[in-house]
Design a protein that fits this description.
The protein is α+β, with helices and mostly antiparallel strands and about 230 residues long. Helices cover about 20% and strands about 30% of the residues. The chain is built from three helices and 15 strands. The strands form four sheets. It has an eight-stranded antiparallel beta sheet with strand order 7-14-10-11-12-9-8-13, with no helix packed on it.
Length: about 230
């Protein structure tokens, strides 16, 4: 029988951490065992789950999620990868260069069109980096680093990247969010002109559009009720 568990999350830097609400007396690393004696007898590992001290408190999950875990979130984009096929897997580690981060490797591109890269697969440097120097044996980026040389495998660097710099960048926002931005700007303009009646009106519309955007993320049917006089 499946066990219902409760999860949450928090954001730290550019990482999303999954946490689990404590419940039950403990968990077995093998499925189908609900107590320590039978679990360990079958060769599994029993982990106390702290029903008395941690029940209802969130902590790191201690069992695998094998049936799927869905997360919905919103974010403000600062870059867009145009083509995931434009990438380099030739980075073999990183080092320091005059206080800046230097990705090392061989056969790296020196194309002047590369102004930014997005790193994936690194234990420490995932995310967007601005290029300082391009060389076939290293890439120096504007990211600060002061440390020893480190060898790391599995790094992927995406090179065809658009970065948010001015109004030409296309923001990945919904129509409700776009309308909310317009109303907010109108409210600030009215406030600067001393027209507080218009300021209050536009701020109400701003909040209404934000609420519509949040409601659009809800699942399930929307129930509407009419008046008895309606035909």
């Amino acid at each position: 029988m499946a066990t219902k568990r409760k999860y949450g999350y928090y954001i730290k830097g550019n990482r999303l951490a999954i946490i689990e609400s404590g419940s039950g007396s403990g968990l077995c690393s093998l499925s189908g065992y609900s107590n320590q004696t039978t679990c360990e007898a079958a060769g599994g590992t029993w982990t106390e789950n702290g029903i008395s001290a941690e029940n209802g408190q969130y902590k790191s999950p201690i069992v695998s999620v094998t049936e799927g875990l869905e997360i919905q979130y919103a974010y403000t984009p600062t870059y867009r990868i145009n083509d995931i096929e434009d990438k380099s897997t030739a980075i073999t580690g990183y080092d320091e260069s005059s206080g800046l981060l230097k990705f090392t490797g061989s056969g790296l591109s020196t194309d002047a069109a590369i102004t930014h890269i997005v790193i994936k697969g690194s234990e420490k440097w995932n995310g967007l980096h601005k290029i300082n120097t391009l060389n076939s044996n290293y890439w120096i980026v504007e990211t600060k680093y002061n440390g020893a040389a480190v060898t790391e495998s599995g790094i992927v660097a995406y090179t065809d990247v658009n970065v948010l710099e001015d109004e030409t960048f296309e923001l990945d926002i919904s129509r409700y969010q776009a309308n909310a931005v317009v109303y907010y700007l109108k409210a600030k303009i009215a406030e600067d002109m001393g027209d507080f009646k218009k300021t209050q009106y536009f701020m109400r519309e701003f909040k209404r559009q934000m609420e519509k955007g949040a409601s659009a993320l809800k699942r399930g049917p929307y129930i509407m009720q009419g008046f008895k006089e309606m035909t």
